[in-house]
């Protein structure tokens, strides 16, 4: 399955000439993709949220959510970030003035929808290692709405 997903990501990246050195990682079922350098995309995979947190996200009114995993050179994959796609009114209702946003920071708000991400709050790996550098780069990319492109 991972090979199929990786092949799909690479195929999509190859069909996007303006992103020659970048790859597009589908955030399905969210109708957006995350644009990252190809060498980082090779470490990324996605999957559904599970358990009581997934139930909480759904009960809060999210239309879709996805976990994005990072596979280090050695060791087990870990969640790099989660993405949430909400109707704006549901997003607004979930915000508490004296608490951090429960569904991360909004990347953008458009057409009555909010795309938000909850990414790493600290370095997951030693920042001097290739994995640490990849995660630092990816975390920085999460802050720029231009790195999230709609499914066409």
Describe the structure.
The structure is a single chain. With 152 residues, the protein is an alpha+beta fold. It has a domain at 43-145. The chain has five helices and eight strands. A hairpin with a 7-residue loop joins strand 4 and strand 5 (78-87). The longest helix is centred in the N-terminal third of the chain and has 13 residues, at 2-14. The chain is globular, with a radius of gyration of 15 Å.
Task: Name the descriptors.
31% strand; three-stranded antiparallel β-sheet; single chain; globular; 30% helix; alpha+beta; 152 residues
From the N-terminal CA to the C-terminal CA, the straight-line distance is: 24 Å
Order of helices and strands: HEEHEHEEHEEHE
- Cα gyration radius (Å): 15 Å
Shape: globular
Main beta sheet, described? 5 strands, antiparallel
Strand content: 25-35%
Short description:
30% of the residues lie in helices and 31% in strands. It is an alpha+beta fold and 152 residues long. The protein has a domain at 43-145.
Topology record:
Blueprint: H1 2-14, E1 22-26, E2 32-37, H2 38-41, E3 44-47, H3 51-59, E4 64-70, E5 78-87, H4 88-94, E6 105-110, E7 113-118, H5 130-141, E8 148-150
Antiparallel strand pairs: 1-2, 2-8, 3-4, 4-5, 5-7, 6-7
């Amino acid at each position: 399955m991972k090979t199929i997903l990786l092949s799909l990501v690479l195929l999509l990246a190859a069909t996007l000439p303006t992103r020659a050195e970048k790859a597009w990682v589908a955030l399905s079922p969210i109708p957006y993709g995350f644009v990252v350098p190809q060498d980082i995309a090779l470490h990324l995979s996605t999957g559904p949220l599970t358990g009581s947190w997934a139930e909480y996200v759904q009960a809060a009114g999210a239309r879709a959510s996805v976990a994005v995993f990072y596979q280090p050179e050695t060791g087990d994959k870990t969640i790099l970030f989660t993405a949430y796609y909400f109707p704006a009114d549901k997003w607004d209702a979930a915000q508490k003035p004296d608490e951090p946003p429960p569904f991360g920071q909004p990347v953008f708000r458009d057409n009555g929808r909010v795309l938000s991400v909850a990414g790493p709050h600290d370095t997951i790996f030693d920042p001097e290692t290739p994995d640490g550098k990849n995660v630092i780069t990816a975390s920085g990319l999460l802050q720029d709405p231009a790195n999230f492109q709609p499914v066409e």
